[in-house]
Write a structure and sequence with these properties.
Elements (H helix, E strand, L loop, with lengths): L2 H6 L2 E3 L8 H10 L3 E4 L7 H19 L5 E3 L19 H6 L3 H18 L3 E2 L24 H18 L2 E7 L20 H5 L3 H9 L4 E4 L18 H11 L5 E6 L3 H4 L4 H11 L3 E4 L3 H16 L5 H15 L15 H14 L1 E4 L9 E5 L18 H9 L2 E4 L6 H7 L8 E6 L7 H11 L4 E5 L14 E4 L5 H11 L25
Parallel strand pairs: 1-2, 1-8, 2-3, 3-4, 4-5, 5-6, 6-7, 7-8, 10-11, 10-12, 12-13, 13-14
Antiparallel strand pairs: 9-14
Amino acid sequence: MDRRIAVGQHFFTGFAGPKMTESFIRDVREHKIGNVILFEYNVESKEQLALLCRQIRELILAETGQVPFIAIDQEGGTVTRLKEDATIFPCAMAIAATGDTQNAYEAGYVTGLELRAMGVNMNLAPVMDVNSDPRNPVIGVRSYGDDPSTVSRFGVAMAQGLVDGGVLSCAKHFPGHGDTAVDSHIGLPLIEKSIEAMEICELVPFQAAIKAGVSAIMTAHILFPALEPDRLPATLSRRIITGLLRQKLGFQGLILSDCMMMYAISEDYGTIEGSVVAIQAGVDMVFISHDVSLAAQAVIATHTALMEGHLDESFFDASTARILASKATLSKDIPPLHTVGSDAHRQKSLHATYASLTMVNDTPFTLGNNPLFLGCTRFRPTLAANPEDETQRFPIAMQSLLGGDARITPPNPTTEDIKAALIDSHEHSAIVIGLYKALHYKAQLKMVRAAAATGMPVCAVALRNPFDLMELPPNVRAYAIYDYDARTMAAFADVLSGKHVCTGQLPLRRFKRDMPATPSS
């Protein structure tokens, strides 16, 4: 294989918008970039996505002689790139709350089948991180929980479903992104745990995924001093990537980097230089997700390193062979587009949603005929999630379903905001408050305590992270519904109206009311 084409096989990049840009087409032709990642801004509908994927495939196949990996982050829940004409499943933690791994398998199988119908052949899921830190700003409900066994069972089930659905799966973020309060999109996390501690927690799900034959594993941009004494994040560490993952754990599949444009890499090491170092460390494929010109520069730098002997030729060739071997396994069968978002698929998602709803504190509560609904509009909880969606407004949605009154409050309401929200609360039959990132926006919890002090029946619902419920007064009814979207809010309305009884179980061993307080932001 031509060296330029071989180097291009090791890179993923992307472009903004629903059509290929001129700069993307130019750099693919000139630098032979062989793979693409798609985001929410690339997707308008299932028909548009199918056409786009076909055009991407035709372009890259013509320029490189190899089919591209077309990847997407379709985890479910808050990390969802598809539109509502496709089937959207609940987040990982909600799936685990159902207690049934069949729901994880169905989420993978249906998602894989629908992605394949639209031309996507790799899903960057499941998340195999054990969410050990309640303050974790980027993983949270993307994880199946804080128990390594639970994460292993549900993650493996989803991965198997994806493979059976006809797409490659990718376990992430090795060796674990769950025990940190820093988001690697905006900082460089540090996890100071011994290898022995990691062997009974973080590494357990990845070992289970390897044993089950997961297609790929994605690395984390995190410092692990016990694994890498030099100041190198896992993605850049040969000790971690080749020594631990490839040799000690015996993983034979593809090793992918997280996006090299993330702050944890770009700020301290540089996206271009970091990409070369990652490949030297043993990463097979590098993501430079949002800037094709930057990806082109990294391709040039990698080619130069190879030609000048800074990148071992046999090591590189073995990595290229893994990529091509994996591409040879891609399904050539394309399901009909009408399978995407079919009634049968949507029923599976709806079943999982209802089965996930969890009562966390069963104190007496009656909704009555004139409830007051409070809460903020959905905002972007992490850069891994889609941008803000101001159409999702918990108070308005619940009022439309159950009547009463609705007031939208700020994410971090002031004392004056809280007083205004509760000014006539005595005229209502109950107060229902939606919490969204309340461990970081602590004034939401202050609002719940103020509502509870009125003597009215009060209910708090975690619209994302159940850890938001840890510091509530004991006289507040509490629910975890895991996802802030229309499907889940409609299901929760059935709970409040008595049409549905919660059966979900919180997949968090560390949940308790006396957890240490965290600073507000």
